[in-house]
User: Fold this.
Amino acid sequence: PFSFEIISTLPRRADVPADMVAEESGPGAQNSPYQLRRKSLLPKRTAACPAKTNMEGASTSATEDFGHRAKRARVSGKSQDLPAAPAEHYLEEKLPDEVVLKIFSYLLEQDLCRAACVCKRFSELANDPILWKRLYMEVFEYTRPMMHPEAGKFFQINPEEYEQPNPWKESFQQLYKGAHVKTGFAEHFYSNPARYKGRENMLYYDTIEDALGGVQEAHFDGLIFVHSGVYTDEWIYIESPITMIGAAPGKVADKVIIENTRDSTFVFMEGSEDAYVGYMTIKFNPDDKSAQHHNAHHCLEITVNCSPSIDHCIIRSTCTVGSAVCVSGQGACPTIKHCNISDCENVGLYITDHAQGIYEDNEISNNALAGIWVKNHGNPIIRRNHIHHGRDVGVFTFDHGMGYFESCNIHRNRIAGFEVKAYANPTVVRCEIHHGQTGGIYVHEKGRGQFIENKIYANNFAGVWITSNSDPTIRGNAIFNGNQGGVYIFGDGRGLIEGNDIYGNALAGIQIRTNSCPIVRHNKIHDGQHGGIYVHEKGQGVIEENEVYSNTLAGVWVTTGSTPVLRRNRIHSGKQVGVYFYDNGHGVLEDNDIYNHMYSGVQIRTGSNPKIRRNKIWGGQNGGILVYNSGLGFIEDNEIFDNAMAGVWIKTDSNPTLRRNKIHDGRDGGICIFNGGRGLLEENDIFRNAQAGVLISTNSHPILRKNRIFDGFAAGIEITNHATATLEGNQIFNNRFGGLFLASGVNVTMKDNKILNNQDAIEKAVSRGQCLYKISSYTSYPMHDFYRCHTCNTTDRNAICVNCIKKCHQGHDVEFIRHDRFFCDCGAGTLSNPCTLAGEPTHDTDTLYDSAPPIESNTLQHN
Assistant:
């Protein structure tokens, strides 16, 4: 049923060499030079066989001419093979594999397929991968099989890893019906029809334009192979669903180069919906690289209502205007995958005018302008692209540009990794944006956008910039290790900053300034080399439910006319202050947990006037709240406890209002007011503090009204060092040392206070003749008469209680100093004569008259 021409060249049985016959039946078969690898033989049919049947004889007669195939007889209704003629038997079963393979190597693909139909052995040999690889590379040039399982899908494989035994044949079958552009080969092909018999379905052209013309004239169904070479200044306008793929050995795209110096290299127009172009280099390389008339010229131009696929291409443009790839117009929706758009002297990929498309797994680098521009309602889907080392911004969306960007790696671009401007509204998800030479993300001039679950790190400036009335959503990102800040919002910026992990940045984790008003919530802001959140220059914003911790400077700074609302945050474990208001910083601090800072939990200074209410402030190593240097503030309904120093400090002309606070269990005093401090203290509960509930000292003059001061481990209220106070309607009870103590020279205004049921441990000790050190040790400062002993050479830093003067210094030259706070140095064992009233001495040498002063923050302002 088919022509197997090479059979006629094989020897008839009478022409078979004697040694080959001997190899079949003689005793020398083992030494035959044809004893090569072969199939195992069936039982031999010889003329000497006495049991030869008529069917066998008929078979022999019928096959004396080797050009015919043995007939088969029917036996009992079933087909049964007749005995093979000697030549057929020899070809099918005895001719060595190497010889058969050598014969098959002269066949083309269709004849190989026919030979495979002869018998099982021929089928196996005709499907030998080496035979098909040679044929395949002769036609297609690929050094690895190019699989084409479905329309618009091509990929190369490693034959050793492929699951089927002969990928070369499988690929040949998939690619068979196509036209080939191979310069200079068409004439040779059509001049040798005998050499290429059976390849009538293959067409050869010298130019791409000619091949495209063949498609238009329906010579073939649109699969075009462009072979190795450089194709220059061809007019490639595609308006039908053709498939064009490079065909070359090695790295295919490097060997197939299509270049234009005058016009766009490829233009896809309406009608090319399902066109495919792949595995080639596409260049636009004009002689005049900056001429204005090249403004509309590109390597690839994809216009309205077409959706081609561009795959595994290298795309280059040396023109300094325009872009390498331009996708423009309603219905322009290409798929561009695995392409390299690099080293262009303009924009890499430009998507505009309502165009869309899918852009995946591309390499976009070292372009003179942005790697990607999206403009004017362009709305692409861009996934897993590598956008890096650009000489401008990485991705630029502007003028209402949109897009969905997912899992891209954007890094080492000269300007921002991602820029959003002028009502652009992209969505950026799970990208890495890092090592930008300026910032990571820059949103400005009313830009918007959603930035979700990205990693933004190691950028030279801020990880995220938001400015000029922009309002993006920044959610679930990790923003870390920036060479400046984490998120920087300025110039009337807004935005929702939510659920981010912001850490390890050189400046503030979040900075808000110049009338900006973002919402900052549910973030972790920690381990910064600077502060946590810095609000300055009239910054605003709602800052709520964040965790701010372990920052080198203040957890939150509020300064220079700023008025943020900080609500329900946890601000803790800082290396300086928790929340720091200074230089007219205002705002609201409410319902926060502020704890375990090396300095105060809250500091207020220099004209700052915040509202601080319903917070829990504890564990500060330098006190709970420190108001100093003319600080103000409304401090209401807070719980302030377990601080190492005073719960609240008021000093240096500060004048806050404290209402309804609970200040308790401090490891020092409750409230300490000194150095000209003032303030209104009203309706507070001050209890269980280790030192005085309220200590007023050094020219201070507060007003205390309707407070309850009780259960303290020292005095209720102590006033000393020329301070005054107004005390109205306070209840002072059950304090260990006593209720109210006034030092010498102190005058107070008192009205309707209730001082009752205090333990009066000082008066009791004095009346019992005990040394006051017995009840104070060196950690408390009971107020009573104190003396010095000139005989014992006491200094102005020493004090001796009245009972030690009477007992231990009897007959000495002693001097009454004043009624004030002290502990007894005699009882402490720091004088030359041992105390006869106290127990073991301590190693303390100097009596302190006031509680230890707080450490003021040395936080510096950084813009």
In short: Residues 781-821 form one domain. Confidence is low (pLDDT under 50) at residues 1-80, 840-852, 858-863. Residues 442 and 465 are 5 Å apart (CA to CA).
